[in-house]
Amino acid sequence: MGRKRILAVVHTVTYGKRLLDVLSLLEADFRVQVLFTAPPHAFGDDVPAFLARLGSVVLPWEQATRMTFDLALAAGPRGVQYIDAPLITLPHGANYLKRVTEGANTGVAGLRRQDILPGGRLPAAVVVPHHAELRELARDCPEALPLAHVTGDPVHDRITASLPLRAAYRRALGLVEGEKFVVAVSTWGAHSSFGHFDTLLPRLMGELPAARYRTALLVHPNVWAGHGAYQIRAWLARCGQLGMALVPPEADWRSVLIAADWIIGDHGSVTLYGTLTGAPMLLATSPEREINPSSPAAALAAHAPTLSPTHPLMDQLAYAAREYRPEEYAAIASRITSEPGRFNRNMRRLMYGLLGMGQPAHEPVTVPLPEPPPLPLPGWAPGRGEVSA
Asked: What pLDDT, in 10s, does the model give residues 196-239?
């Protein structure tokens, strides 16, 4: 039987996780074969281990660029012009949040001309989560506008479908009744929360009563790739000895986020997805220079309370809870996607249309997230106290 060959181009662990949500729409279809490849990337060192855990067929990049495929998927632009296949490009995070302000590269990351047309080649389809992105695309890369498809956001839909399981996720983590769970989130880069961990972490460890509060750290996979897992664990070893959970880059962070009572974040995607959970927020950092001013991250930065260095953390958490207005956060969350709950339907139709095949005769279901493993108890050593995949 002749199968259609689909290539997943995995630059980083973050990109790979986004592609897995898309590739799940091809499950149980014996007419297609999914292959993976990993182009060179500055934050790609953990990709081989990520793909090995999948048990996937991995083509060396040099081989993949000499082959022909029926469809290719990529959540980043680097090198994709060398792939011989109709290409679908899609964002790797929530919306398009980051602004680049360096010389010729100025623009919204992911929607700049060099992001959409690497090597000057048009893709077969440009996937965006919200109709608002079409305005940016029309301004920065108008020739790609006819190829744009507003499909929605898979992470938004998975989190939303999983919200009724919050109590189950908390039990799985080992949280008991009356215990509060604070999750500190960081994107990557010099202005991320991670850049302020030297002041934030002592407060999480020293100001929250251990008998009533549990904490976890969600650090962007690029931070792990950039510094190395050994160094991250070494820097955070003392935190783990005091019972703070470290979520490794390969783990599914989404159920941990849903379980949170508070989120302390920054201008990254995970913090923005936190607006779906109902948890009050504090922003440890929100650098205006790096935020796309028309994005929901800018709206969140203008709305959420900012962590103060001079007031007790407990008081600030209480303030965030008192000032939390669900309808205001819901308005921000609504800007993540203009197709809520419809990503699977829209994306599957797009892929099968480009493949020239009929879709499977069943609705694509948005599957709730699996339960997370338990949080570590105080006293773990580096590498032994992570919330694993």
From this structure: 787 888 888 889 998 899 999 999 888 988 889 899 889 888 88
Q: Select from 180, 157, 79 the least CA-distant residue to 364.
A: 157
101-123 pLDDT per residue, tens: 776 677 888 888 989 999 889 99
Architecture per CATH, 4-153+338-355: 3-Layer(aba) Sandwich (3.40)
Domain boundaries, the chain: 4-153+338-355, 156-333
* Spacing of C-alpha 147 from chain mean position: 24
Q: What share of the chain is helix, strand, coil (3-state, %, to 5)?
A: 40, 15, 40
The residues that bridge with 74 in the sheet, in sequence order, are: 9, 89
Whether 4-153+338-355 shares its CATH topology with 156-333 is answered yes
Cα gap 100→78, rounded to integer Å? 17
Residue 283, SS3? Answer: strand
The CA-atom distances, in angstroms, between 208 and each of 186, 202, 242, 315 are 20, 10, 12, 10
User: For 249-275, how does the pLDDT look when each residue is reduced to its tens digit (9 = 90+)?
Assistant: 888 999 999 999 999 999 899 999 999
End-to-end CA distance of the chain: 35
In the three-class reduction of DSSP (H, G, I as helix; E, B as strand; rest coil), residue 48 is classed as: helix
Q: Could you give the CA distance from residue 123 to residue 21 in angstroms, rounded to a whole number?
A: 20
CATH fold of 156-333 reads Rossmann fold (3.40.50)
Residues in contact with 384: Cβ distance below 8 Å, sequence separation at least 6, in sequence order: 376
> DSSP 3-state assignment of 147?
helix
Q: What's the CA gap between 227 and 229, in Å, rounded?
A: 7
Q: How far apart are CA 9 and CA 154, in angstroms?
A: 18
Closest alpha carbon to 130 in 366, 294, 352? 294
**Contact yes or no for 345/355 (Cβ under 8 A):** no
Global pTM value? 0.93
Segments in the chain forming alpha helices (H): 13-23, 47-54, 61-64, 113-116, 133-140, 154-162, 166-173, 197-206, 221-227, 229-235, 237-241, 254-258, 269-273, 296-303, 313-323, 326-333, 343-355
